Amino acid sequence: MGMTGIYYVEKENLQTVLAGDPSRPDLDIDKTWSLIADMFPDIPFVPVQDQYKIDSQLTEFGTFYLPPHQVAQMAESIPVVRQREALEQRIDFDRWKASNQQSPGDVEDHAMMIFFFAINENDTYEEIVEDYLMPYLNQVFDLYLDAASKGQGIVFAIF
Q: Which residues does residue 9 pair with via DSSP β-bridges, in sequence order?
C-alpha cells in the first residue's frame, strides 16, 4: 500500500477544495506521483516542495497549490520535456530500483519520495515505466496544458 496523488483543477472552487469538500478529482495518478516528482525536480509537475504547500483540511499528508500563472509557465515547457529523448534522460530506473533496496538513511533527501513507490526486484522497466508511469505522466501533461489554456490553477494532494 502506498500514498496516492490526486489533482484538482481550480474552477472557482479553491476554498471548497481546501476545506476538504472537493468535487471528484480531476486526475488520480496513483503512486506514480513520487516517480514523477523525482523525474522533474526542476519543474514541479508534482509540486511537493515546501514553497507550494498550502493549509488545507483536504488531507493530512500534504496539499500543494500552483496558481494559474505558474501552471501556464509550466505548460510552456511540456512540448520539450514530453519528447521521448527528453523523458528518457529523466528516467533513472536503475537508481529507483536500487533505492528501494536501501534503508531510508542511505538515500539522498530528494530520493526519499521513491520509497512511496515500491519497485520490486523482479519488476521490469517495461512494466514500471512503459506500462504504468508513462500513461499517468501523459495525463499529467494533458491536465497542465488544459488548465493553462483555461487560466486555471492546480491543487495537488497526497492521500
A: 154
Q: Report the candidate in 70, 94, 90 with the shortest Cα–Cα distance to residue 82.
A: 90
Phi and psi for 103 in degrees, rounded to 5?
A: -85, 150
Three cell numbers, residue 64: 500543494
The 3-class SS string of 42-73 reads CCCCCCCCHHHECCCCCCCCCEEEECHHHHHH
Which three-class secondary structure state does DSSP give residue 139? helix
CA distance linking residue 54 with residue 156, whole number of Å: 10
pLDDT per residue over 49-98, tens digit each? 999 999 999 888 889 999 999 999 999 999 999 999 999 999 999 988 88
E strand or H helix that includes residue 87: helix 84-90
pLDDT tens digit sequence for 113-129: 555 677 888 999 999 99
On whether the CB atoms of residues 18 and 63 are closer than 8 A, the answer is yes
- Alpha carbon distances (Å) from 72 to 67, 68, 139: 9, 6, 16
